[in-house]
Amino acid sequence: MDAESTIIGIDLGTTNSLVAVCDAAGPRIIASPAGERMLPSVVRYGDDGRVEAIGTQARQDAEKYPQHTLASIKRLMGRGAGDATDDLPLLGYRVVDGPNNTARVAIGEQLISPQEVSAAILRELKHWAEAAFGHTVRDAVITVPAYFDDAQRQATRDAARLAGLDARRIVNEPTAAALAYGIGIGSAGTPQTIAVYDLGGGTFDISILRLIPPDETNTDTAHFFQVLATAGDTHLGGDDIDTAIVRLLLDEMNIQPTPTGRQQLRNLAEHAKISLSDSPKTTIASEIEHESGRLSINRTLTRDEAEALAAPLITRSGECCTRALRDAKLTPAQIDRVVLVGGATRMPMVRQHVGEVFEMNPYTALDPDEVVALGASVQGTVLSGKSDALLLDVLPLSLGLETAGGAVAKLIIRNSTVPARATEMFSTSVDNQTAIKLNVLQGEREMAENCRSLGIFNLTGMPPMPAGIPQLEVEFLVDANGVLNVSAVERRSGAKATTQIVPNHGLTRDEVSRMEAEALTHARDDMTRHRVVDLIANSTLDVKWIEDRLAKLGDDVAPAYRAELEVLLTTLRGMVEAGERNWRSVDADVFYKAKETLDHASIRLHEQSIVRTLRKDD
Ligand code: AMP
Question: How much of the chain exceeds pLDDT 70, in percent?
């Protein structure tokens, strides 16, 4: 990649900002030299008007320097102090009117414009990118909320210029989120209507976009996302859920916390909320500073309790969605996709509510904090004329699942055109499994270790059953944008799990070619190994079943027949053990024959077992 043509994508957020780049391997976030993927949008100035700290450091020390630490500056971009009266109490620093009705922040004697603060953030992100590439970066695509007016957009452009960046395009955040999911990229040429639900820390936005397919002469996708409606609430977000949890705790503790104590509680509340996205309950344990001492708290908070607190807030976001639909004169059935943005959309309750409002599962495959920056970088690549790598009309590599023994069951084979769908039945190989780990794989090889794992997810909540009895139906659906939806249902219990993945991200064309070539080179070996691994898994189940029956039926089995089965069992067990030690040491054909012989010989045992069961029922 060269300095001339790299266009980075920047999500200049109210709370956090991110930078991404898109190359032949697809879009990816650029981390700081210290490994941070997000830059807190916080800058601290000295009394002399110079930047003293930025990002994490500035946020950490915010309490020490409340008047000098500028957070949420985005709320002031392109606005006058008078326009921002709602926001002022939240900001904690002094905002005054500058020339031409534009807000300025007063620090000591200095007046600082919001553009300068944003420029400091953009400059830092530019440095991250330059450190990663080893060359200078001049061009960027920067995102703004869909509702930003001309003055706010112009202020963002000016901030970029101050940071030494040419904002090649200012893109709406929801448009970027859609682009990150491949919507509007490639040849899925039908018009689509997309809802983008963005619930961050402090703000909520819903946007309804229409993607109008480009005509052949124009490859610039940005022109083809039309904003049909936006709605939202600039004071609704994950932080309000933290506040509700803090209130609950304070009511129970019946104390007046000191400012430090209040901050402790906020941190505990946020931490608990985040834990509850993954587990049904969490523990809050600490000592809280209050006006007459310290008080210990040690309490379990359940997801149900947190959801009850969050419900009114989430319902409010749902009402905004309904309003946006009404403004766009659309019904939920006319929405083709829903994309989730913002950290708070990790809450299962939010996903469920959005699913109910729009009557479909939202897109969740990409990190909701990163999706806007990723999409901005996609737009950057489109602008630089290098978007080829992203076209995804066929799947470059097969998609499958890991099965017993580390083999791969391919559900969708390479070069399938999208959309593509496939289902397959699986079962367990161990008794009493109540959870199944599903490893989604990409690649042409027969063993999981030689493929690329795209994600692992768990199907939980199955009642204990003997191995081989659960009926697990797994469906892979790759939609027109290339997003893989995996769903798994255990038919007997109804236990369900789903996940989403974007399979094309992260592989260059060269890597795809290399993987194909390797598959060819190893084809024969791989096939044999896959066969041996499957034989081991199936033989283990057969051996176990026959041993169980022999034990249960006891003297009902004629001694000569028992002896015959024992000999065959010993042979097959020997092959399983040898195969487990080294798959090359067994001849797959001989192994197969041994399994078939035992299966055949055990038919009488099956019959006897059935008769015994029937007798018992009498
Ligand atoms: P954003 O402004 O998009 O970075 O979103 C930040 C908000 O998302 C904050 O309120 C976080 O507490 C919240 N958040 C981040 N991760 C999670 C999670 N796993 N579950 C629930 N909320 C989260």
Answer: 95
Distance CA 612, CA 603 (A): 14
Q: How many CB atoms lie within 10 A of CB 570?
A: 11
Interstrand relation of 192-199 and 337-341 (parallel, antiparallel or unpaired): parallel
HSE, side-chain direction, 13 A CA sphere, residue 403 = 23
The residue behind tokens 């009926």 is 471
Task: Based on the residue annotation, tell me whether 150 is a catalytic residue of this protein.
Answer: no
Q: Would you place residue 187 in the very low, low, confident or very high pLDDT band (cuts 50, 70, 90)?
A: low
Q: Which of 197, 178, 190 is nearest to 418 (CA)?
A: 190
Are the CB atoms for 456 and 485 separated by under 8 Å? no
Find out whether 35 and 393 touch, Cβ atoms under 8 Å.
no
Tell me the β-bridge partners of 426: 472
Edge-first strand order for the sheet with 42-45 is 51-54, 42-45, 69-71
Instruction: Please name each of the domains of the chain with its CATH number.
Output: 7-237+311-394 (3.30.420.40), 238-310 (3.90.640.10), 399-506 (2.60.34.10), 523-617 (1.20.1270.10)
Three-class secondary structure of residue 438 per DSSP: strand
User: Which of 59, 205, 346 has most ligand 1 atoms within 8 Å of its beta carbon, as the pocket-test mutant?
Assistant: 346
Q: Is-catalytic flag, 11?
A: yes
Nearest to 568 by CA among 533, 603, 537, 534: 603
CA-proximal residue: ligand 1, atom 2 (nearest): 200
Direct distance between the N- and C-terminal alpha carbons of the chain, in angstroms, rounded to an integer:
78
Q: Decide whether any atom of ligand 1 lies within 6 Å of the 40 Cβ.
A: no
pLDDT in tens, 470-509: 999 999 999 877 889 999 999 999 999 999 988 776 677 7
Query: pLDDT tens for residues 245-285?
Result: 999 999 999 999 998 899 899 999 999 999 999 999 999 99
Burial (0-12, 13-18, 19+ Cβ within 10 Å), 478: buried
